[in-house]
Amino acid sequence: MTTVKAALLFGLAIAGLTLICGEKQVEARPNFKKIWAETYPNSKMLISKKCGICHPGKTKKEKSAYGEAVGKGLDKRKETDKDKIVKAIKAAAKMPSPVEGKTFGDFIEKDEMPPAK
User: What is the pTM of this model?
Assistant: First the structure.
């Protein structure tokens, strides 16, 4: 009987440690998609591309030229202040894209993906 209790307590202890110490999946910037959608409410690009507007690859560490332009307008890497994010998004729209003579805003206005690099 005591081995059953010991096994049960051990199992509960392991489960508790797993819950406490387990890795939690948290998006670093959960508001970016929402803020981008509020900034460009008529854009259908966000529906199809989602995070791919700034992150064209398989990981969030990979950034497009547009994503890098937005990042330059932020004070810190994991910015959460909505006004600062909106300001960075609008500033990036005015920046020149890799396509000569076109800004990132020209692509967004036409609901086209800005070039990756």
Answer: 0.68
